[in-house]
Amino acid sequence: KNDVDASDARAILYRQFLEPQAESDAVQVRFIDDRNPDRYLFCYTEKFPADIFVKRPTAQISTLCVDAFFKSVEKVSGVRSTGWLTVPIEYDGTADTGVEVTIKVVSPTSQVTLENNGRQMRLLKPTPFAVGDTIEISTVMGNRYIRLNGVDVLTLLQSDSKWVYLAQASNALRSYGTTRSDGLAIITAYSY
Question: Which residues are CB-neighbours of 86 under 8 A, at least 6 positions away?
Fold first, then answer.
């Protein structure tokens, strides 16, 4: 026997599906799996018809998933103070995904490149990047940015650049100055 009355149940459902989060109207639908990592996706409530004055209340909730790709609940990340020239990543997702990367400049250079499997993002600066400069790049759809020491520098991205993403299976994130493996810029952190 359920001790929740119909009006309380309706209020809970309305809050979950019509006003799920303070900053968003999306509903996070989570899929729990015994053998694979838990996944989620975001949906938006399309219809929520519910009869108010009935003995046995029922509701059929219709949602739309604009971005219907499953995302991992667990964030994968790596940090290394000495950095990497190349970060091998085995990505088991079924859809391409963006990545957040922190790059540290270890020697003056006018260009910093982030590359993965042939796709390159080149940042070109009229005055050289200084030793110790930190570049943060996010290629996550809907949250893309490029910051130099915390300041937005999206304008440094060259027009022939392509946003780097992780594809299923093998990936090799690389950072460098003007030529591959020159060691002028290293990856110190990544997450996806």
Answer: 172, 173, 174, 181
Q: Are 86 and 50 in contact (CB under 8 A)?
A: no
Q: In the numeric block, which tokens belong to residue 46?
A: 């399309």
State whether the Cα torsion 170-103-86-115 is positive or negative.
positive
Q: Which residue has the tokens 């930190």?
A: 134
CB 92 within 8 A of CB 135: no
Beta-bridged to residue 97, according to DSSP, are: 166
SS3 101: strand
pTM above 0.85, yes or no: no
Question: For 101-133, what is each residue's pLDDT tens digit?
Answer: 999 999 999 999 999 999 999 999 999 999 999
Residue segments in the chain with a per-residue pLDDT below the cut of 50? 1
